[in-house]
Amino acid sequence: xxxxxxxxxxxxxxxxxxxxxxxxxxxxxxxxxxxxxxxxxxxxxxxxxxxxxxxxxxxxxxxxxxxxxxxxxxxxxxxxxxxxxxxxxxxxxxxxxxxxxxxxxxxxxxxxxxxxxxxxxxxxxxxxxxxxxxxxxxxxxxxxxxxxxxxxxxxxxxxxxxxxxxxxxxxxxxxxxxxxxxxxxxxxxxxxxxxxxxxxxxxxxxxxxxxxxxxxxxxxxxxxxxxxxxxxxxxxxxxxxxxxxxxxxxxxxxxxxxxxxxxxxxxxxxxxxxxx
Length: 276
Description:
- The protein is α/β, with parallel strands linked by helices and 276 residues long.
- The protein contains nine helices and ten strands.
- Strand 1 (3-7), helix 1 and strand 2 form a beta-alpha-beta unit.
């Protein structure tokens, strides 16, 4: 069975992600893993017990980290979630991206450090993971009471090449038994009439066996503005976006739009990269 992966640095935002991850894992009936990496002055895995004593501060940090990981594992177990933990050494972002194998992990949950405005999110780690992860990435900024999760909004371009990614995230969120709406942004350079959009939606959803999903259509000068309008108007508790690289006017949601949403809104944001 696939797991939910929660990389953590034990910061407040990471702890918020861990709390949300436990509730989500319980709802989805999935096991989870808490992951932490420590930077060490030497290859720690090659040291024997005697040599470890030469680095007392590093050893203390490692012991403290193990205790915190065990604490989160225990919290999950108390909620009926099968959990484990992993402590790695000197794991960079590239290694983490390779670590997130979609055959092993259903999704990744990470805390973000950004606040309203255009501050960066969790350094550049969450940003890189959103752009390159082979599994869906859920970004959590603030503490979020899972009981308040009533409405999920999914942004989509209704294109065939987005179907696989859409189906993957839909299979996750439909298990949450909450209201789900689609939003389609109509821009001047990609204008479509209502009848055409309805036909696209019927075909798009029909191919993956999804029925009776409400679709909101919003006119905007560009996708970023349209998504902002949708979030302000529809007020979802959770937002999902299928990201992909921008190649002229033939695309819609670029990773940068998802990152802007994470920085400027307080709700959980789930993204999946269409190209990977």
